[in-house]
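Hi, here's the filled form for the chain we discussed.

Project: internal
Contact: R.S.
Residues: 326
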Amino acid sequence: MIRIGIDIHGVADASSRFFSELTHLLVQTGHEVHILTGSEHTDALEQYLREDLGLAWTHLFSITTYQKQQGTPIRYIHDNPFMDPDLWDKAKAEYCKNHEVQLHLDDSSVYGKWFQTPYAKFYSNTVFEKKKKIGVIGGSFNPVTSGHIQVAQAVLNTVPDIHQIWLMPAYMHKFGKHTAYSSDRIQMLRLVETEKIRYFEYEIENRLSGETFVTFNRLLDDPDYKHQYEFCMVIGSDCVFDFDSKWLNAELLSHLIQFIVVPRPGFPLANYHGLLSKPPHILLKDVLVSDISATLVRERIQQGQSITGLVPEAVEEYIAIHRLYG
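And the returned structure, exactly as it came back:
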């Protein structure tokens, strides 16, 4: 008997006709089909799987429903469940091991590191007519501030072909601002997501070093992204004056991706003539953003001072509830 596991989002729904025929054939001939999902197990989910995707299955596993039954703390942010990332990531692997699933198909390599049973990454053959241009802002985001949001909004307002801004927190920050990822940093980023400003988990999920050259050299060749997106990096003008001398492989990096540089108080771009001062790089000389840093926010909290306006309202509330940085 064959036991196969299939992820919904990015696999079953990416090639629904194929998986509809495959799952029906397997079930009809006495094999096991295990549908795995992060969505909560509801009647509406089953209806979607059966009527919209045309799937058949013998087992249906929901990470969220399972973790609720285990008493795992779950927080809902914009109606999406959030829990300890490791508990979330390894749930599918544990399920497949316990149910002796012989092959699981998923669209994310993140889960693969937990698997002890056979696992394969599924790549859709979807062809995109035009890549979406994404501006990536990296940093510690400890916490995300109103300044970060202002920078993101400034780029969206002034660079017409930017589709979205993705906020990418570092896993291991190269300047030692923190030593590992924090669940709180991720949850605060989730709280500020909008249609145009998104959280991007790439460095954390892949446990990268924080070096921009290393990250983008990998990202630009990643089959999960390279066919859909064109990436550029958004940085503040305070970072460009030592770019040529201090950034790893600065010259190669300047040819690898486009940079969009946003002015920061005290670092006028009129005085900058380095590697990023010429096209295709973009200097937004007429844009003004507030000089708000995460360090300032942490210091004010430690001194018992207000941070109203320095961080988005939802982030201020989260910091107060969880008593962060005190």
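Let me know if anything looks off before we file it.
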